[in-house]
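Support reply, case 0932

Customer input (verbatim):
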Amino acid sequence: MMHNLTIAEQIIGLKNRDFSSLELTQHYLDRINDSELNAFISITKEHAINQAKLADSILAKGNATKLTGIPYAHKDIFCTKGIKTSAGSKMLDSFISPYDATLSEKLNSENMVMLGKTNMDEFAMGSSNENPYYGAVKNPWDINRVPGGSSGGSAAAVAARITPFATGTDTGGSIRQPASLCGITGIKPTYGRISRYGMIAYASSLDQAGPMTRTAEDSAIILNAMAGFDERDSTSANKSVPDYTKNLSKSLSGLKIGLPKEYFSEGLDKGVEKVIMKAINDYEAMGAEIIEVSLPNSMNAIPAYYIVAPCECSSNLSRFDGVRYGYRCEDPKDLNDLYMRSRSEGFGDEVKRRIMIGAYALSAGYYDAYYLKAQKVRQLISEDFKKAFKEVDVIMGPVSPTPAFELGSIKDSVSMYLADIYTLSVNLAGLPGMSIPAGFSDSLPVGLQLIGNHWSEELLLNVAHQFQLNTDWHHSSPVD
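Our regenerated output:
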């Protein structure tokens, strides 16, 4: 079936006229229609069919790009001209973007086909995808469990084979954690590698877009199209983009892999640890050298992140006030009532919680005690990584301390925040990170996390691809 083909295989199929983009697109639209995962907020059927017809005409003329005609799903945090962009929130339920995000423009320029916009935790704030205005997303491996968040809709859609790839964003693990819990491949590039212009901001110094696919090879192909400098984004890196597919086949002989001792301590599920250590042994068999490293400040990542991110979110979300665009309360008595009721009715509980934390931490008398101290801890975390990368090429460990947990099983926010313990430090340091399928614990997928030094996406993709050449975990599927 077409949905079991990787992107690399679909590219060949389209080129050889084994099937058309329209046939491929309609196949995925039918699968989305039959899905019960709640992975999509908007299904852009008419738009997708028109794009597929255009792609077929370009393919027929012989002047197609590599990705012409390949369907994809777009996380509903990226602005798409003329199409609803909600960020999973009631606040933006009626917002039709007047422009395209840079990433949307890049994918359009490849003549790809957008199937729709995927469900997500509201404003990307969550680790379970239980926080959207549009209802929880379900994990295709077990519909009673979470797919992870905030890019849970994208991860579930790729895992369920209702899209060949999806875009995601990662502020504290929101690509890697759902990729791990759904058994797919996801990469968060170095901060600044992909433009954030038109990506609705949560925490501006942490947010980064990336691809979510089945394989590392597919991620490399997609990252080639997504990466690059954008003068409209002041945080975009003016740095040349390599061909991420070029060195996928490079041998891992002599590769130095660091295992942080802090990642294998109390709190890590035994089944997850067993899967991770088996994967490490597989790398050793491929010629890699395993070295223990220490990241002593990584355990402070949760308190540092949950000060820095809410502070930035309270600033970014202040624009949603019921005046210019977005949700507006009915019959406000005065301007103050308009502000208060529009924001209290338009935002969900988790978003309001983080806004309040951020506003408090930035308030007079508390800035030095909280925000400034968190930024100092952030620097210490970055220094730990710099020291480790003097000894090793790649750092490996778990993505999540547990496999996917049951919907509604975690009641308090602090316990939910602990699910991000292995991913947050990567964002705080602005490093690239990746999750690849590494096995199963209690019949649920477990991802292996790869962490690289700045701008080492090419190496991470090579390391991931070689693992996937020697294992079959990335071929495992919850559907036929």
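We compared this against your earlier run and they match. Two observations from our side: The chain has a mean pLDDT of 97. The chain has 15 helices and eleven strands. Please reopen the case if you see a mismatch on your end.
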